[in-house]
Design a protein that fits this description.
The chain is an alpha/beta fold. The chain is 40% helix and 17% strand. The chain folds into 2 domains: 6-12 and 265-384, Alpha-Beta Complex (Aspartate Aminotransferase, domain 1); 17-262, Aspartate Aminotransferase, domain 2. The longest helix has 22 residues, at 265-286.
Length: 388
């Protein structure tokens, strides 16, 4: 099909031309004497993306999901007990990963479309007077339902309970898109990947660790191999990696960091917030509702739209893809067939997003969902336009 394909899933995101050019180059010797300068360029700047001043950042040839495992096995002894709110598919999978690794997880259930409740977390930790719970697993931005939890409020709840548990935060669809305050929020381990806010193909797993988390690494008795941070730290300090790095993706990451930090992380977050509010205006103009139950918890990196009763969101997604060359995110697990998701993170601006909204409107109409063509696009444009 002629013209531009609209990739509006919540990741992978469209890759900017600038990053494609950075990756399109010959391989080089990752053991050469000049390679450490390149490694240090990346590792020294990664913390700025999340406002981290203490601890370390790590990059693996892997994915965000793999960093769940890396974070757990490097800091928790076998059979450790954890606490986790479950309010969507990715919080569910984080819990499942921990259980598959042999850890015990106490689950706090929340309705899908809601976020983690700091009061419930505080109560559970306060009741754990023997401090058996070793960590709290939290998804910052639940990609399945389009909601964002207040990480700072969860840290405050842990502190009020006077509990030493580590705070593990999945930031896969938030880091490099939404405001993320590693130090201020007292995060111990933050997890992300290359294919969302960093605007790259999938293939890099990024892990941020606090000094508290790092103090557990050497003493941890869990068996580790590929994801062993001891080997990674020993090599990184010399400017190398313990195994062959994903060079093309590292070339892209180096340039992505330049792009993000040139713009400034506060401005990156503001840009995503502006795009998100335009999409939310469009959803309202269509007469539809978001999966997020309250405006204040709605995500700025994607919007999950609920289709009316009697309609199947999968039909909207298929029509959008086959007729209008636009890829929308599908509903997962409990919300399968009930929602479609519009990604607005990474390499995106108001004009490209306006085109995507036009495609969504046509797909909705074709699927038999009554919307007025131009209503959502018009509402978004009214929000995005800059009056003279």
């Amino acid at each position: 099909m002629a013209g531009r394909h609209f990739l509006q899933i919540p990741g992978p995101t469209p890759v900017p031309d600038r990053l494609q050019r950075a990756m399109h180059r010959q391989m080089e010797d990752h053991r050469s004497s000049t390679f450490p300068a390149f490694t240090r360029s990346i590792l020294s700047r990664l913390p700025h993306v999340v406002h981290q001043t203490r601890g370390e950042a790590f990059v693996f040839p892997a994915t965000g999901s793999a960093m769940w495992e890396a974070a757990l096995v490097n800091t928790l002894n076998p059979g450790a007990r954890l606490l986790a709110p479950r309010f969507g598919q990715f919080s569910h999978l984080f819990i499942q990963t921990a259980r598959n690794l042999g850890y015990t997880v106490d689950v706090l259930e929340e309705p899908w479309g809601e976020v983690a409740d700091p009061a419930k977390i505080e109560a559970a930790l306060a009741a754990d007077t023997a401090h058996e719970i070793q960590g709290v697993l939290l998804v910052h931005n639940e990609t399945a339902t389009g909601v964002t939890t207040d990480v700072g409020a969860v840290r405050a709840a842990i502190d009020r309970a006077k509990h030493p548990a580590l705070l593990f935060v999945d930031g896969v669809s938030s880091i490099a898109s939404l405001d993320f305050r590693f130090d201020d929020w007292g995060v111990d381990l933050a997890i992300t990947g290359s294919q969302k806010g960093f605007m790259l193909p999938a293939g890099l797993g990024i892990l941020y660790a606090s000094e508290k988390a790092l103090s557990r690494v050497d003493a941890c008795t869990t068996k580790r191999a590929y994801f062993d941070l001891r080997a990674m730290r020993a090599n990184n300090v010399q400017g190398y990696f313990p195994s062959t790095p994903a060079l093309s993706l590292l070339f892209g990451l180096d340039e992505a960091l330049t792009m993000l930090l040139e713009e400034g992380m506060d401005k990156v977050a503001t840009r995503h917030r502006r795009l998100a509010t335009g999409v939310r205006a469009a959803v309202k103009a269509w007469g539809l509702r978001e999966c997020a139950t309250r405006p204040e918890i709605a995500s700025n990196s994607l919007t999950a739209v609920v289709v009316p009763e009697g309609h199947d969101a999968r039909k909207v997604i298929e029509i959008a893809f086959t007729r209008y060359d636009i890829a929308l995110g599908s509903g997962l697990s409990e919300v399968a067939g009930k929602v479609f998701r519009i990604g607005h993170l990474g390499d995106m601006n108001a004009l490209t997003l306006a085109g995507a909204l036009a495609g969504v409107e046509m797909a909705l109409c074709d699927a038999g969902i009554a919307v007025t063509l131009g209503s959502g696009v018009g509402a978004a444009l009214q929000h995005w336009r800059v009056p003279s």
